[in-house]
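ILEI/PANDER domain-containing protein
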Amino acid sequence: MRLAGPLRAVAVLLLVGFTWVLATAILGGDSSSVVKHFFSVTNEEPTAEPKPRRYKCGLSAPCPQKHLAFRLVSGAANVIGPKICLEDKILVSSVKNNVGRGLNIALVNDVTDLLKYLRPLHEGTLVFVASFDDPATKLNDEARRLFEELGSSVVKELTFRDSWVFVGAKGIENKSPFEQRMKNSKNSNKYEGWPESLEMDGCIPLRAPLES
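Tokens:
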């Protein structure tokens, strides 16, 4: 049965009124707040979460002024090479194809011949070391003594296939705070025959000869 015009209008009004009462009961509050609820339109777009800031060499916070940001990663077993980063510049890595088994050393430049480069170091020179595979076998007494003079606390105890990362300096007065060693031990090795890789980062205060 079809409703005539006036009756149809009355039915529509009754339906609207019923909806209004129901909405007021559900949402609570006075009628003006319900009106605002139904007729308010939000144009706010969902805000994307801010990306975490990236600092030099992947540090979690920036270094203070007159400090150098660094990150050292020792090699993993004899498969993954080490990495040395200084001030967001990769000095040593497998990608750069300049890593080798033993000790990978950067004197802000890449070097290979150990004693040749350690003996004539100038005062204030920073030395970055990251081991790969085996750092100790070819370390003679003189090399170990030179690393001690650079601030190493553990170089005397380094043994076959230990993991080692170290930052020292020529003329350092105390032992370096930037050094880690993971001993090669069958009971705790992560890899078969090798301990886990070490990772160390931080901020090194500049000495006068390095300040620009």
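Helices lie at 5-27, 31-39, 114-118, 141-149.
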